Amino acid sequence: MPLEVNGKSYETDEEGYLANLNDWSPEVAEALAKADDAELTENHWEVINFLREYYEEYQIAPAVRVLTKAIGKKLGKDKGNSKYLYELFPYGPAKQACKYAGLPKPTGCV
Amino acid sequence: MADFETPEVREHIHIPKLQPGVMESSGPFIAKPDHQEPLGFPGELVDNWEQKAIDAMGEAVKKYRGLAVFMDSCVKCGACTDKCHYYLGSTDPKNMPVARQDLFRSVYRKYHTPAGKFLSKLGLEWLIGAKSMTKEVLDDWHNYYHQCSECRRCSVYCPYGIDTAEVTMAARDVMAQVGQGQKYSNEIIGKVYKIGNNLGLPEPALADTLEGLEEDIEDETGVKVELPLDRKGVDILLVTPSADFFAEPHVDGLMGYAKVFHEAGVTWTLSSKASEAANFGLFIGNYENMRKISLRIREAALELGVKRIVFGECGHAWRVAYSFLNTLAGPFDFLDQNYPIPQHICEFTHDLIQQDKLKFDPSENDWMTLTFHDSCNVARASRMGDEPGGQFRIPREIIKTVCNNYVDMAPETIGEGTYCCGGGGGLLTDDLMSVRVKGALPRMTALTNVVQDEGVTHMAAICAICKSQFTKVLPYYNLGMDMVVSVHQLVSNALILTGQETDEEDEEQTAEAATE
């Protein structure tokens, strides 16, 4: 099912993840969230931006532990825990946040 | 997101009234050409697939003699019917193991038995329950053979020892060979070939993750414990599921293994080539892929020049390692023959405990009351130690050494009769969430009972799939997702490293500083 943003159409997979990483833009992220009835606040964006930076360096989304540690260092200890991340992304930070960040879904026994 | 109902947990595991067709669906996502071709399968459903499926089935019953026996020996006694967690949780009669097997058996009867061939000529094959290979049958296969986790619980109760998992594997292999594979498993196997592990975690990311874990252990204990990668000439190659590098509570278990190795004084390494213990070749029932994945471990062991191979907490990986590794990737004559080849991390830790080489403070785990979930592949397809039942005894003895509060779940739900977590055998994917939640019902029932009656707060497991599956499904049953822990996470909590700063010392130092 393609995603429509500002008159442009983007290819997605069966679960709504972007098929091509290069198609991502902040507007596309907003549209991906909207498709799940979610709204992106500044707190969500802090996580999404970190995910994209990490992906650029390592070609994979960070582990939850790496994510919580990095968020904790950057934004304070009250945000550096998985409870905070699950509040932001109830379907799981690894999967839901990756989706809005335009990254492929982590696969395997996770 | 959920468009299904979570089954009701009753006081006892209950045999439900049948609801035919309730789990009918299009099944899991079908593999795309990109997922099929690297595994040697055609990209999509081939022309004349019916005949090719019949031929592939014929090959399978010739090649796997067990499968031929399983096809011919079922007497429809019904002993297996109420033993499957997917039937108990879903109420669909096609999830009774005998009925699921019959989806394959009925086609086998028509094309590969003398009676079937003869009666087909007269148009009377229905007399023996034989069926043609049609699109309808293929759809049923794709759906229901992905509602079996290959856990083999039903086989324990079958008077003929028919192994349903083998039938599921054969059906999945036939489907993949005619171009209809399962996306989840096949995409993952492709990542193993391309990158080295199920996750697709490249070497630099793995190195960075391990460095971060070293920092965490040092911050917590004051002791520098290494998690080496690709270090040559060490004693032990640790092969562990890549989920151990990524997910919770898996990663806490990995830190536990590192601490145990450190305290044992052995040298060890992880490998970026063999950065995966899992072998989804088993799940899709394809020998060639299973072998290709296994060979990576052999190559890594040779390149690194290790003397021993130890496997981390992964259920089906241990089945492949314990039962098949030598024939798939052996001979391992270059390893030290004085140790088990391969060895399970629980055997390794248990040995050290027997020799009194590890120091524990089990009170570190006093805030929890533990129970243990026997993972299906460890329980029914492998062993630990050198006595029957070691795979049940050894993990429990480890837990009881490092924890003061331990309770078992109901006896018919553990040990050899353990219920699957509901996510094994290639089903741990979001597109099968209703199957996973429903299949977890018997385990959730047994767990709820010990939570209510015995005050159990946490359930330990030694399988990456079990840990991820429980994390996901526990909330559907009103239990906390953080209830599931790794066995070596418990070990890690209680292990006192040589030179470790303990809380008491910290307090003393603070007190001294205050008096000064």
The helix/strand order of chain A is: EEHHHHH
* β-strand amount of chain A: 5-15%
Number of helices of chain A: 5
Number of domains of chain B: 2
Most residues in contact: chain pair: A-B, 22 and 39 residues
**What is the CATH level 1 assignment of the largest domain in chain A?**
Mainly Alpha
According to CATH, the fold-level topology of the largest domain in chain A is Arc Repressor Mutant, subunit A
Describe the main β-sheet of chain B briefly.
4 strands, parallel
Name the strands of the widest sheet of chain B in spatial order. 2-1-3-4
Number of E-type strands of chain B: 7
TL;DR?
The complex is a heterodimer of chains A (110) and B (516). Chain A has 5 helices and 2 strands; from the N terminus they run E-E-H-H-H-H-H. Chain A is mostly helical and 110 residues long.
Structure in words:
The complex is a heterodimer of chains A (110) and B (516). Chain A is mostly helical. Chain A has 2 domains: 3-35, DsrC protein, N-terminal domain (Dissimilatory Siroheme-sulfite Reductase, Chain: A, domain 1); 42-100, DsrC protein, C-terminal domain (Arc Repressor Mutant, subunit A, Orthogonal Bundle), CATH 1.10.10.370. Chain A has 5 helices and 2 strands. Chain A has a two-stranded antiparallel ribbon with strand order 1-2. In chain A, strand 1 and strand 2 form a beta hairpin. With 516 residues, chain B is mainly α. Chain B has 2 domains: 39-181, Fumarate Reductase Iron-sulfur Protein, Chain B, domain 2 (Orthogonal Bundle), CATH 1.10.1060; 189-494, no CATH class. Chain B is built from 23 helices and 7 strands. Chain B has helices at 33-36, 49-63, 65-73, 85-90, 97-112, 114-121, 135-144, 153-157, 164-177, 183-194, 203-221, 250-264, 280-283, 287-304, 315-329, 345-354, 376-381, 390-402, 433-439, 441-454, 464-473, 487-494, 503-515, and strands spanning 236-239, 268-269, 308-311, 343-344, 370-372, 458-461, 484-486. In chain B, helix 12 links the parallel strand 1 and strand 2 (268-269). In chain B, helix 2 packs across helix 9 (164-177), helix 14 (287-304) crosses helix 15 and helix 18 runs parallel beside helix 22. The longest helix of chain B is centred in the middle third of the chain and has 19 residues, at 203-221. Chain B is globular. The N and C termini of chain B lie far apart (60 Å). Chain A binds chain B through residues 14-15, 57-60, 63-66, 69, 82, 91-92, 94-95, 104, 106-110, and chain B through 1, 29, 183-184, 187-188, 191, 197-202, 204-205, 208-209, 212-213, 216, 241-243, 245-248, 250-251, 278, 314, 428, 430-431, 464-465, 467-468, 472.
